[in-house]
Amino acid sequence: MLKYILKRLGISIIVLFGVSIILYTMVRLMPNNYIETKYASQLQQGTMTWDDINYFKDLYGLNGSIIEGYTKWLSNLFTKGLGNSFKYEMPVTKVIGDNMWISFAIAVVATILQFLISIPLGISSATHQYTARDYAVTIFTMMGISLPTYFFAAIVIKVFSVELGWLPANGLIYATANYPDTFIGGLQKFGDIVKHLILPVGVSVILSLGGLMRYTRTNMLEVLSADYIRTARAKGLSEKTVIYKHAFRNTMIPLATLLAGILPSLFGGMMITEQVFGIDGIGRLAYNALKEGDIPFVMGYNMFLAILTVIGTLFSDIMYSIVDPRVKLGK
Questions:
Q1: What angle do CA 245, 246, 252 make, to 5 degrees?
Q2: What is the model's pLDDT at position 50?
C-alpha cells in the first residue's frame, strides 16, 4: 500500500506540472488584463497614458510571452511560493489559507449531506422501480440538476429570506451583531454562522443530489438483477437483508470512484454560491480575481483545486480496494 501511494504521488507531480502549463496558458489568453482593468478609468480620463500602462505591465510581468511568464511563475513557485496576488496585495498562500476554511466547511457538510440523502433516495427509487415514489424522486432530483445555481439560489432567497423572513440571505453574521468575548458569546456567534449557512448549504446539496442519486439507482438496479441476489431471495432471506447486506455493498463499489471529483467540484461550485450569498470564502475571492485578471491568485486557486482532485483520486482508489477486497492495488 505504501509503495503504491508513493508511486501515485510521483505520477501526480507530473500531472500537476502538465496541468499548470495548461492553466497558465488559458489564464494568459483571457481577454481581461489586470493592469488595463485597474487603470481603465485613469486611461479614459487621460491621467495615464499607454506608456504608463506598459510600464506597469512590465513591472507585473504581463508584457512577456506566455513561455517567459510561465517560466517566471514556475521559478517563483520553488523560491517564493505562489507569489503575491495583484488584487489582494498579499501572498496567494495567505489569502487562500485565511479564506478557504469557510468554503471547506460548506463543501464538506454539503458532501456528507449529499451522500446521506442521495444514496437512500437512489436505493428507494430502485427498489420501487416505475412506481409513484420512483417518479417523484426522479423528478425532484432532475429539477435539481437542471436549475442553474444563481437562479435556484435567487428563488430560495426570495422565499425563505424575503417573503418568510426565516433565514438570512447574506454574509456569515448579522452586520449589527456584537458578541461578547465569552463562551456564551462564542456560542451565539457560532449559532449565527450556522443560521447564515443553512441556505447556501441547502442550495449546494439540492443541486448536487441528482447525479449521485441516479448513479446509485442505476447501479442498484443492475445489482438487484444479478444471480446471487436471486439466490439470496431463494434462500428465504428478508428483503431488507438482501438489499442492505448483499446488494448495497456491491452498489458502493462504483460509488467509491465518485469521491475523486465531488469535493473539488463543490469547491468550484462555491464560486457562484458564495457570490450569490455574499460569503467571503475562497470561491468568491477567486471569482473577483478572475474578473480582474489576477494571474497569481487564479493560478494558485486552480492549482489548489487540481491538488484536491489528485488527492481525491488517490483516496478513491484506496476506498475502492476497501469496499471490494477483490481489488488489489498495483505495486
A1: 90
A2: 77
**DSSP at 91:** B
In this prediction, residue 318 carries a pLDDT of 72
Interior/surface letters 271-291, b for 16+ CB within 10 angstroms, e for the rest: bbbbbbbebebbbbbbebbbe
Nearest to 91 by CA among 304, 297, 290, 295: 297
H helix or E strand, kind and range, residue 141: helix 132-146
Measured distance CA(285)–CA(275) in Å, rounded: 9
39 phi and psi, to 5 degrees?
Answer: -110, 25
Task: Report the SS3 class of residue 331.
Answer: coil
Rounded to whole angstroms, the Cα distance separating 88 from 294 reads 9
If you write DSSP's letter for every residue of 212-250 in order, what string do you get? HHHHHHHHHHHHHTSHHHHHHHHTT--HHHIIIIIIHHH
| 190, pLDDT greater than 60 | yes
- pLDDT tens for 232-246 read 788 887 877 888 777
**CA 237 – CA 219 distance, rounded (Å):** 21
Q: What is the pTM of this model?
A: 0.73
Phi, psi of 275 (to 5 degrees): -65, -45
Question: Which residues 6+ apart lie within 8 Å of 9 measured at CB?
Answer: 314
| Coil, helix or strand at residue 163 | helix
84 DSSP β-pair partners: 91
Placement of cell 438489499 in the chain: 243
- Which of 159, 175, 178 has the alpha carbon at shortest distance from 167? 159
**3-class DSSP state for residue 259?**
helix
> pLDDT tens-digit profile of 73-122?
888 777 777 777 878 878 888 888 888 788 888 888 888 888 888 888 88
Angle at 190 between CA 187 and CA 191, to 5 degrees: 85
